[in-house]
Amino acid sequence: MVHKSTPVPAFYQADGPPQPIPSLTYHTEILYPTPSFVLISPQEEISFSTHTLRGRFPTPSRVFSTTSFRVTSPIPSRAPTPKVTKSVSFLADQNGELEKMSMYSSILSTDSNGSKIPKPEGEAGRPGRGGYNLEKSLNWDADRFKKLKGHVHRLIEKHCDTSKSKTNQSLTALNSVERDAVAQFPELHDYVGCWPVGDLVQMQLKNISAKERQKLAKKK
Fold first, then answer.
1. Measured distance CA(190)–CA(118) in Å, rounded
2. Tens-digit pLDDT profile for residues 59-116
């Protein structure tokens, strides 16, 4: 096909609107993205584009592009914990619990002592002078009482200062004698304050002191 050129004057005025420039078919199928944003969270946004196609091509599915970025959120500083206040509160609660435990222990002690054998009136070893005979008051088997007496005497030699009376002994020494005696003779739990052991300690220390005085008197 032969194309002929048509001369156009320099000041040519067209009678109508200009003719569109010829273009290829695929030029008319350009995608025109329309970006839009969907807020997913304060840290992420997803942008997607809707593509409009012209012609015979099917509409493509949406293409998602994710833009991730971090947003540093200032974390408000926490006020320091008032340690003194908590300590005082804890101590107050603890003291309350200790008072309850002390009251409960006192009640148990009263109840348990009520079912135990009380100490007789007077002093052990002085039956005719307002006191009582320890062996008769206990009413144990003679052999059992003898073993108790010998065991307590050995504990006195081990834990106590035999040059002093019972009232001048340390509490630690007296508690050690009582603890070891009860471990060997569990029936002593049945007596209030484990008074048979206390009586044996008092009488034995008195006897030792009396013997020492006799020795000194003989030397003179």
1. 9
2. 444 444 444 445 455 555 555 555 544 444 444 455 555 555 555 554 445 445 668 9
CA distance 97 to 103: 10
CA distance 192 to 198: 11
What stretches of 72-170 show up as alpha helix (H) in DSSP? 83-114, 134-138, 142-159
Contact 186, 196 (CB under 8 A): no
In eight-state DSSP terms, residue 24 is: -
Tell me the one-letter amino acid at 141: D
Predicted TM-score (pTM) of the model is: 0.49
For residue 184, what are its two tokens? Answer: 């060997």
What digits encode the pLDDT tens for the residues 166-180?
Answer: 999 999 999 999 999
Nearest CA among 200, 209, 202 for reference residue 146: 200
Q: Please give the structure tokens belonging to residue 96.
A: 């309350």
Please count the residues of the chain.
220
Single-letter amino acid, residue 100: K
Q: Is the dihedral of CA 106, 107, 111, 112 positive or negative?
A: negative
Is the distance from CB of 156 to CB of 169 less than 8 angstroms? no
- Chain-centroid distance of CA 147 in Å reads 48
Contacts of 122 (CB under 8 A, 6+ apart): 130, 131, 132
